[in-house]
Amino acid sequence: RTVYVNGQYVPENEASVSIFDRAFLFADAVYEVTSVLDGKLIDFHGHITRLERSLSELGINFKVDADALLAIHRELVSKNNVTEGLVYLQISRGAASDRDFMFPAADVAPTVVLFTQSKSLIKSALAERGQKIVSFADLRWRRCDIKTVQLLYPSIVKNEAAKKGADDAWLVLDGKVTEGSSNNSYIVTRDGTIVTRELSHDILHGITRKAVLKCAAELDLKVEERAFTIAEAQTAQEAFTTSASAFVCPVVEIDGAVIGDGTPGPIAKRLREIYIDANRAAAI
Ligand code: PMP
């Protein structure tokens, strides 16, 4: 694979960053993951808008040039012959000359790294059978709206979920579901209303969430943006998650309770199809 590091395209085994990089020592970095279908980028500008916000919330001194970043994404997709998969972009505050909690002087250049991953996204065994979810306390820091590389807790709960025979974890804060380990969470009530937590510092403002809520509005489906409990989810008609890499992915079990008839629900399946069709057509 060819990867991108600070202006250079290099083979992955020749890429290097400093051990004093603040991403490495302090998780002081933000990232975006953009999916690729037919060799084209899905909702690129949505990701760039969120990237700018994450950088600005952390005061990382990187001037986003959407056209330049688009060119790098395209170049990597092309060099690595990615037809379906992901582009990962990470920007850290940069490498200081030593380990220091204080931020380095503003003239330290941010570290910019991109790489691709080829994988099948549309055909998904998980989406076909539906995910089993288990819940965990949401012990993350309280600025989950900033897309930082501080992913230890989500990674731990994903592993704990797997140990329990499940596919993923949903996080619970003050009795209500915030979101999944790396996706936004939804239920569909028995009267057909889609419910997903409102935007706040407690969840990542998913690019796919926004696009899927737009699809739901176009289908005249009712949407309520509010928090829900695990108990409410367990008696819901359907449940699903959204993320850039898994699109809309149905949920069929939550903490041992079967959702609906235990197979992916019709609204989740419909939203998955419509989301893929609309965003594939608009890919750049
Ligand atoms: N929440 C969390 C915690 C995530 O890590 C992700 C995936 N990055 C999402 C939600 C979904 O966001 P998006 O639709 O932008 O991929």
From TrEMBL:
CDD domains: D-AAT_like. Its EC number is 2.6.1.42. Pathway: Amino-acid biosynthesis; L-isoleucine biosynthesis; L-isoleucine from 2-oxobutanoate: step 4/4; Amino-acid biosynthesis; L-valine biosynthesis; L-valine from pyruvate: step 4/4; Amino-acid biosynthesis; L-leucine biosynthesis; L-leucine from 3-methyl-2-oxobutanoate: step 4/4. One of its GO terms (molecular function) is L-valine-2-oxoglutarate transaminase activity. It is an enzyme of class 2 (transferase). Its cofactor is pyridoxal 5'-phosphate. It catalyses: L-isoleucine + 2-oxoglutarate = (S)-3-methyl-2-oxopentanoate + L-glutamate; L-valine + 2-oxoglutarate = 3-methyl-2-oxobutanoate + L-glutamate; L-leucine + 2-oxoglutarate = 4-methyl-2-oxopentanoate + L-glutamate. It comes from the Bacteria. GO terms for cellular component: cytosol. The keyword Transferase applies. The keyword Coiled coil does not apply. Keywords: Amino-acid biosynthesis, Aminotransferase, Branched-chain amino acid biosynthesis, Pyridoxal phosphate, Transferase. GO terms for biological process: amino acid biosynthetic process; branched-chain amino acid biosynthetic process. Belongs to the class-IV pyridoxal-phosphate-dependent aminotransferase family. Acts on leucine, isoleucine and valine. This is Probable branched-chain-amino-acid aminotransferase. It comes from Thalassospira mesophila.
